[in-house]
Design a protein that fits this description.
By secondary structure, the protein is mainly α. The protein has one domain: MetI-like (MetI-like fold, Orthogonal Bundle), CATH 1.10.3720.10. The protein has helices spanning about 5-35, 50-55, 60-90, 95-110, 115-125, 135-160, 165-170, 175-205, 210-215, 220-230, 235-265. Helix 8 (about 175-205) runs antiparallel to helix 11 (about 235-265). The chain is globular and about 70 Å long.
């Protein structure tokens, strides 16, 4: 730790808990408690039940969870592919050209996501590329929103790579494609998995752009949570939110294990 004295460590720990509990932990605990309640008439919930979770395991809720998982998976793969390719291409550009490319990729996250949703809706509601009313327009919007994070993560990792590895491979007769496949990408694997996890988590929670684009047969879970709370079903919505958090955390834990193994390699 940066704080070496015992009193300093205690003070840092106390400050952490003072800030962490009310700002981060407490809201999540409130949602967890509400997911088991039928009413909330005092400090603690009452009418404890698991009916909300039983409902979340069937019908529209289960289908919405599958939709969110498939959308996030597709968007993460596409974003990681495009972001990695762009970062590798930008590494060979001059500083000014790279700055322009950086700005282009950051632009979708520099504006409200509802603006991105509207832009995608307008752009793909007419031939020759007509995606409006299909699930693909949702996947495309999520990809646009999260690609910047993949691009930035891979770009930062590329700047930290030691060029000696690539130079040694090239001196032994390896061509550019072989150097990329056998040297650069394996060295980037920890950053690639971290970027994939971040893109997945952001896609799982995306709502604003999704609300403008989703068709009736492709409803992600955040939309269902919004609909439940909008009609006053706060406890059912809380259960769906817990399911969303749990599914996202499970995937992130799996990605973290892959990242750890890649880092050891």
């Amino acid at each position: 730790m940066l704080v070496h004295s015992r009193k300093g460590r205690w003070a840092a720990a106390a400050l952490f808990f003072v800030l962490f509990l009310p700002l981060f932990a407490l809201p999540l605990l409130v949602i967890l408690a509400a997911s088991f309640a039928t009413n909330w008439s005092s400090v603690l919930p009452s009418g404890l039940t698991t009916a909300h979770y039983r409902a979340a395991a069937h019908g529209d809720a289960l289908q919405a969870l599958a939709t969110s998982l498939l959308t996030a998976l597709a968007a993460s793969v596409l974003a990681l592919t495009v972001g990695t390719w762009a970062a590798l291409a930008a590494a060979g550009l001059k500083r000014r050209q790279r700055a322009v490319l950086d700005a282009l990729f950051v632009l979708p996250v520099a504006v409200p996501s509802v603006v991105v949703g509207l832009a995608v809706l307008v752009a793909f509601s007419q031939p020759p590329v007509l995606l409006n009313g299909t699930r693909w327009i949702v996947v495309l919007a999520h990809t646009v929103l999260v690609t910047a994070f993949a691009y930035q993560s891979v770009s930062a990792a590329l700047r930290r790579l030691d060029p000696a590895y690539e130079q040694a491979a090239a001196s032994l007769g390896a061509g550019p494609a072989r150097v990329l496949w056998r040297v650069r990408l394996p060295l980037l694997l920890p950053s690639l998995t971290a970027a994939a996890g971040l893109c997945f988590a952001l896609s799982m929670g995306e709502l604003s752009a999704t609300m403008m684009l989703y068709p009736p047969d492709w409803t992600p879970l955040p939309v269902l949570i919004h609909a439940a709370t909008d009609r006053g079903s706060l406890f059912a919505g809380s259960a769906l939110a817990v399911v969303l958090m749990a599914a996202t955390l499970l995937v992130l834990l799996a990605v973290s294990r892959i990242r750890t193994r890649a880092a050891h390699r």
